[in-house]
From TrEMBL, chains A, B:
Cofactor: FAD
Alphabetical keyword list: FAD, Flavoprotein, Oxidoreductase
Cited PANTHER family: D-2-HYDROXYGLUTARATE DEHYDROGENASE, MITOCHONDRIAL
Name of the featured protein: FAD-binding oxidoreductase
Protein family membership: Belongs to the FAD-binding oxidoreductase/transferase type 4 family.
Source organism per UniProt: Bosea vestrisii
Keyword Flavoprotein attached: yes
Domain FAD-binding PCMH-type per the UniProt entry, residue ranges: 43-222
Classification via InterPro entries: FAD-bd_oxidored_4_C (IPR004113), FAD-bd_PCMH (IPR016166), FAD-bd_PCMH-like_sf (IPR036318), FAD-bd_PCMH_sub1 (IPR016167), FAD-bd_PCMH_sub2 (IPR016169), FAD-linked_Oxase-like_C (IPR016164), FAD-oxidored/transferase_4 (IPR051264), Oxid_FAD_bind_N (IPR006094)
Transmembrane spans: none
Amino acid sequence: MRAEDMPAGPAPDRIASLRAHLPDSQVLDRDALAARDPGWDAGNLNALALVRPGSVAEVIGLVSWCRAHRCAFVPQGGRTGLVGGSITAPDQLICDLGALDTIEEIDPASGIAVVQAGVTLSALQEAAAASGLHPGLDLAARGSATIGGLIATNAGGITAFRTGVMRHRVLGLEAVLPDGRLVDDMTRVLKTSAGYDVKQLLIGAEGTLGIVTRAVIRLDPLPNGRATALLGTTGAAQALDIVRQLRSGSAPLLAAEIMWSGFAAATCAALGLDPAQLPLRSPCLLLVELGAASFEAARSALEDALAALAETEPDLDGIVSASMAQSAQLWRLREDTDVLYRLHPQAPSYDISLPARAFDAYVARLRPALKAIGPAIEPYLFGHLADGNLHIVLNRAGPLQPDVQAAVEAAIYGELRGLGGSFSAEHGIGSKRIAALQRHADPVKLALMAELKRLFDPDNLCNPGKVVA
Amino acid sequence: MRAEDMPAGPAPDRIASLRAHLPDSQVLDRDALAARDPGWDAGNLNALALVRPGSVAEVIGLVSWCRAHRCAFVPQGGRTGLVGGSITAPDQLICDLGALDTIEEIDPASGIAVVQAGVTLSALQEAAAASGLHPGLDLAARGSATIGGLIATNAGGITAFRTGVMRHRVLGLEAVLPDGRLVDDMTRVLKTSAGYDVKQLLIGAEGTLGIVTRAVIRLDPLPNGRATALLGTTGAAQALDIVRQLRSGSAPLLAAEIMWSGFAAATCAALGLDPAQLPLRSPCLLLVELGAASFEAARSALEDALAALAETEPDLDGIVSASMAQSAQLWRLREDTDVLYRLHPQAPSYDISLPARAFDAYVARLRPALKAIGPAIEPYLFGHLADGNLHIVLNRAGPLQPDVQAAVEAAIYGELRGLGGSFSAEHGIGSKRIAALQRHADPVKLALMAELKRLFDPDNLCNPGKVVA
């Protein structure tokens, strides 16, 4: 047995071995990690060490070291995941992609960006915007979420209904497999039917089948101006009808976010906005944004569209933002979901999708079902209307008792499969949704997942305990 | 050994066994097949028998029968594939999905269609159009190509630059795996991050990992009117600049097809069009189409856009179609590629993609490279400009001598990987492009493909000899 084949030795020895093996990587031991912000989940930095490789070659080196030492490794991006996909154990290594943060190329003529995995979404958005382009993905965690993490979770967000989810933005991918091989499929084209598209397996696998290191991302033209309106509606059906009409206009609809009034009232109060200025008396609020060549042109298009809507929706209430600053304020009403977690620490949260026309009936059944579990349980409801993605946060500090949690999940997830929906729309499975996946996914799909995990990672070293049971 | 475990017996016995095992399927023996049109490839119907299952249960039954009899099976849709992905051998069974041709549901509010695999693209287009919607995929073989086949080859076509390739249109999928299991992932939502997206492996696998039986397809709003123009340009760069400007306008650009003049002159002559009416003196022709609420509105938007273009492109030559009938004629100029194969029977054809801004330089290198192989070899060049997909047909009857073919492939494919392109953009690998795949794909991707094939189909019964070596 070679020295490197030995199972775990004392931590200081292993740290020294790592540092010797990975000269171009930063290695932080437990003491150094204790002083760091773990991000969304306290368990994110509970590891033997965090390694921040300085190159793709060092990522390969890290995986080789882990295989030789039979040490599990957990890829981490922005640590903004909500389902425990990046949590670690004291005998595991973190592979932090943060140092691979180079935007290698923006090619405006072809509409592509070549980036390393640790680039944040906002950094890519800014670089693309300089050429009048956009990566076609946007979400509230844009400042910390990384491209690698967004690929690993197949992120969705605000613009998915128009520009697709992350899977639809990835043209090329490079990744280190659990056995240390580098798969290089960095095509820069939309069309390639050249054998099994194995990179699709890595997209959405949450780092359990390999570590994404680089990607080619498709960029779309970005309107220079955008104008925002907040409309009060009688429910999701009316909001969806408005969205359908806005989408048939010539100015592109850039966002269609829905909030039920309980959610909007909570964020309105926390932000100190004047509730009288907002259509909070309506059961549902719809935040829409149109794009055009300038703010003024977008605002004019939005006002024309709302005037046309008033003919079929005479009771429509709402405001059109008068400035970019006011638009930003309306967006905070939707995006400052942290408010909920300050009101209800570790509040149980869910992330589902279903055909949007079923929203009203679903919500109408959900409220009494939750009340039957606990008379005071109320859901905060908000989400991305146009792609049928609904977020649900309970007005309860978490975690729930196991029996209550089971009853709540049954109420929230129970009918989704029959509707053609998903119990995990964009947050992924991580470590927290495995039981739900086992319960609600197609059994053959589950069996295939386990077979694929064994094929890619027979020693179960690559982000073990996530996604697959 | 049970009777069913026996290897192949005499053909009539096997046909009788099949008929007994699959009471709701049509079974055509060799004699019946000999009288049928094999479609694009003469080898498509060279089989023990063709089975046309009447239900998904019978597809499972067919696969079970094949496993018990160690008989290979080849899924077939419209038999319009160009790379021999559906060809058969005399000891193989064809699984023809043609009887599974039900459009189960069009849900206009949610923008989805639920279809069986044997539905043709044109049937789905017509059904969706009745609700003002479109499946977001279009190609010349629309009348015969089936949804199952389009999924199996991850088809691209005319609209991909705007609405994505087939992979981007599939929300849900049902398939029979090579071991007879049915994987049911018929979600109806855009956003689902619920474990490995195993259906992505089946998309583009050309029937080698399973048989697609049903799918949920995303539908997009369809403009009522569309207007077409044919413009003469100095090359792909100018055409791409025009496309970029048209895409920044408010009327959606629905198509951006490019033809080099040699191709357009050939189809123009074959169609009996008056060459003096077309901008054939230009090196490149660009066919563009804008959408709007009516033909008149679209035509007006197109004329306005071209007037604006004239300021930056003063020498722009071309015609705007005056009627829908004239539009159809312009489209035939682009789509009647059969002309080439009548001029040059079995002409060698290639289907590549590369970042479109590299088109001119690529073509400028390609012509002399082909001439160096044979002084009279000229390429017909045409394709889908906006997504970088170029079709190349040689002015030669096929097949080429092996050494000439190798030299031609080296000239056409040689630099694509370095450019981030693909040697197979939308036609797939089938049986004819396996050697090219082995030569040009990433070796790790190739190894993973072989591992995946073994995992899904260890007995190599499911469309053997296609895609993987």
